[in-house]
Design goal:
This protein has 9 helices and 11 strands. The chain is of the alpha+beta class and about 290 residues long. The structure holds cytidine-5'-monophosphate (C5P).
Amino acid sequence: MDEIREKACAKLNISLDVLGKRPDGYHDMVMIMQTVSLTDEVSIERTDGQGIRASTNLEYIPGDERNLAVRAAGVFFRESGIAEEGLRISIRKKIPVGAGLAGGSADAGAVLRALNRLYGMPLDREGLVRAAEQVGSDVAFCTLGGTMLASGRGEILTRLPSMPECWYGIIMPHFSISTPELFRKLDGKKIRCHPDTQGLVRAVENGDLSGVCRRMYNVFEDVDDRRMRTVAEIKGRLMDCGAMGALMTGTGSAVFAVFESQKTAETAVSEMKGDHRLAAVCGNVGPLA
Ligand code: C5P
């Protein structure tokens, strides 16, 4: 087979805690992450020529090594010991960039899964994670998917039972947020409030959706940044539309809300559609690898 397709799924942070800055410049984190059904379509073709290139439907996304999907393919060949071949990676993007939805990491994870399948599964789960963590902090999670407790840079993963059945409304305002910029702002302040991660894990394990929603928390929402006012406004509107809980995902700017019913989620999202860059309804996705 010379062409292979794979879905790249967005992630949501059900919680996000930052414990401190590390000597390597990264931050130690504790997060609960969930794969959702907002997806990019990735397809990979072998080419006769040398080199790995990516193209997307968004012309401002680079097609060279700056693209995490290209980097993931290079790391796959190195980790598997397979001689590098020419590849053309095409990505149809629906996950917005700079949203905290891990779009780039999801594409990289999809490339790792797809190439592993294309070349007869040379990497086991540990091999996939080893490759993924060289590409980016969220890539290991995006490769394996499902519901996870993540720590370290985000690459130390413990699988949790699936989130209780629910629907998400995702709203992204008309601006994106740079992840390194928000980490720098967080470094300048004392974090006063942390999520109750253990309580959240118990709520997920017990299938207690209200318990999850009550405890959802992201320390980045407390950063001194005027864009957090817009985030708070979106959360408020989603709660007014009948959400059980709402939170910014990652370093934003996207916000998601949890709904018990698909219909309520769809009504809320359609009411907010006109004013935002993205307004989408999606559901939980289980393990991908
Ligand atoms: O690992 P990745 O390249 O995806 O991280 C992007 C940026 O996010 C890093 O350059 C760093 O500024 C920040 N980051 C961090 N600590 C983490 C993950 C990301 O400081 N655990």
